Amino acid sequence: HYLLGVGRADCTGPVAEIPLMGYANPEQVGGGLLSRLYSRAFIVADPEDSRRVVFVSADIGMVSQRLRLEVLKKLKAKYGDLYRQDNVILSGTHTHSGPGGYFQYTLFWITSKGLIRPSLNAIVNGIVKSIDTAHQNVKKGRILINRGTVDNSQINRSPFSYLENPASERSRYASNTDKEMVVLKMVDEEGQDLGLISWFAVHPVSMNNSNHLVNSDNVGYASYLFEQEKNKGMLPGEGSFVAAFASSNLGDVSPNTRGPFCVNTGESCNNPQSTCSTGGATMCMAMGPGADMFESTRIIGQNIYLKARELYEEASQEVKGALSTAHQWVNMSSVTVELNSTHTVQTCKPALGHSFAAGTIDGVGAFNFTQGSVEGDPFWDGIRDMLLGEPSNETRACHRPKPILFSTGEMSWPHPWHPDIVDVQIATIGSLAIVAVPGEFTTMSGRRLREAVEREFASHGRPGMDVVIAGLCNVYTHYITTYEEYQAQRYEAASTIYGPHTLAAYIQLYRGLARAIATNTAQDLPPGPEPPLFNVSNITLVPSLVVDRALANRTFGDVLQEVREHYRVSEVAEVTFVGANPRASAENATEHNFLTVERHNSTSASWDVVQNDASWDTRFYWTKGTLGRSNVTIEWHIPGGTEPGLYRIRYFGHYRKRASIFNIVTVPFEGTSSPFEVTAL
Predict the structure, then answer these.
(1) Which residues are annotated as a binding site?
(2) Which part of the chain is the Neutral/alkaline non-lysosomal ceramidase N-terminal domain (predicted)?
(3) Distance (Å, whole) CA 316 – CA 197
């Protein structure tokens, strides 16, 4: 038996005007909310001693170093040495529709318009709160493990790179993606459900880069379905059962299963450059299985949920044994890798290649860069040399055949552009080893890493370990491709920032951690160089919050466009209000709900809340006008199975007003639609 605790907390942050993190598209800023973002925490403790493992999966693009350091600092202040860098794993689901701005390295700082405190604070506080909840709810329980295959939910988005891997290696696998899902089921002593962690490799990019609504994408929808099923009768985001759908080696894995097509001509662009004969690379986009991105998100999310539910219900193999953790900080820009007894190679200072700017078939770049470029472009190189300085000969040679676009490891103004110091970490729970990786391993990179770790354990008396890769943990270092995939220089390879031997270096490092755990010497591992904490300025390019204003003879929360009197199930009820900037709400009330859908209860003559803004059936749109004016439109996509009756939609906001010359106050307000009738089809 273990002691088990689970917790969930909101980490949504500001849903307006903040760049969304993932596609690096400066146009893609938040403009509302489709679903809330949550941090989900799981604590496994040894009842005999103080050993603990904490696994957190948060609905964010990735965990940044800044975020991790701030969370660890808060945990230390609260719990002393109970929760530390070696036994706390922080993993991001990799949704591309969450607010950015929580990074200290300059490259990410540029794409998300600075270090945005409200965004960083919301995630730090949400993660800590989810761990607090799990800590307070620790009780005796059991962990069961199960694994199975998920079909029709992924494609390899760089299949030509995958083909660069040796044929003898590829022949050992049935597919160019990892279709396996691993599920951990947690129950208490009575067998009551506590929670689940699922690891499955797929990019949460069913929502594309034209989306402006904050949401947790396909894996978040899977969490929502599972939690709604287990927390019967509760509103979304409420109830004690916690279901995390965590990321894994998803580097080259897309959920857009119809594959890449030219949006202008409809022809396939499944070629090594992902380019179209007219319009070039910017026209090549992968399509999901649905009619639009909302439907695709639901289809993929539901596939993942259904497989997890089946594996959860049928799980019978119990996880037993001691808890161990191992962690090191490593300077990834200068690791010496021993390929064999006579031959060593080096990792490089971080740099991004030209194909980084091309983006992928899930989200193309802003300019006419193409994937698979092993030649530089004199035009862009000239601009780069002028603005940012050209890469040194040493870095050029180290990264070959990558043509360097940004030599980030040699750029330090106003702070370094990329991390040098990176976390490597493994936690074991009995026969389960969670390998926490700082980025996006491709399918084959992940297979090689898992196999190496498994072998290392076996050669030191621990055969048959279940090794899972937890992606996007602790610090973000982009992609990790195999040496062979690196030669093709598609997007993932161009974004393998420490050069062609990055994977070999990680395999060497993680084998060292596995060996230390297997031989009980983890406490003797050198901790490595501590990561820096920069004093990043609070100046951002996010518009400053102004005083909100309503139109003349209107007040905040007034209805501008009323609902219809009558809707059928599957129609969309829609209402528009005089609104205010939702950022004012995020900064004034953490668990703020922007909306409710309420049903009239004739027996008690009151209104019962049936949906909130965490529901995937509601959409909250904020439209900015001029001079501090704005509108809010709320949609309720009435789901099948909705009980007929009388309903209304309510909006809750905060407006900022000037109380005196020096003092701006935030005032809560609400608006309510007229009642409307919902009838069955």
Answers:
(1) 94, 203, 440, 479
(2) 2-508
(3) 15
- Of 408, 423, 366, 436, whose CA–CA distance to 495 is shortest? 408
Which residues fall in the annotated binding site for Zn(2+)? 94, 203, 440, 479
Global pTM exceeds 0.90: yes
In this predicted model, what pLDDT tens digit does every residue of 436-454 receive, in sequence order? 999 999 999 999 999 999 9
Residue 388 belongs to some domain of the structure? no
**pLDDT confidence of residue 590:** 57
- Domain contains 95: yes
Tell me, what amino acid is at 563?
A: V
Distance CA 586, CA 8 (A): 18
Examine the domain organization and report whether 511 and 630 are in the same domain: no
Range of the domain at 52: 2-331+418-524
- Over residues 224-229, the mean pLDDT reads 98
Mean predicted confidence (pLDDT) in 445-469 = 98
Residue 501 has pLDDT above 90, yes or no: yes
Residue with tokens 């962990």: 143
Catalytic residues: 254
* Of 495, 447, 441, 427, nearest in space to 472 by CA: 441
Residue 46's Cβ-count burial label (10 Å; 0-12, 13-18, 19+) is middle
Cα separation, 165 vs 188, whole angstroms:
45
Cβ neighbours of residue 661 under 8 Å, at least 6 residues apart? none
Report how far Cα 257 is from the mean position of its chain's Cα atoms.
20
Share of the chain above pLDDT 70, in %: 99
As a whole number, mean pLDDT of residues 286-296 equals: 97
Is residue 353 in a domain?
no
Regarding beta strands 52-58 and 16-21, do their DSSP bridges make them parallel or antiparallel, or are they unpaired?
unpaired
Domain tally, the chain: 2
pLDDT class of 381 with cuts at 50, 70, 90? confident
Judge whether 289 and 263 are in contact, CB under 8 Å.
Answer: no
Same structural domain, 145 and 279: yes
Q: Are residues 492 and 608 in the same domain?
A: no
The mean pLDDT of 186-201, rounded to a whole number, is 98
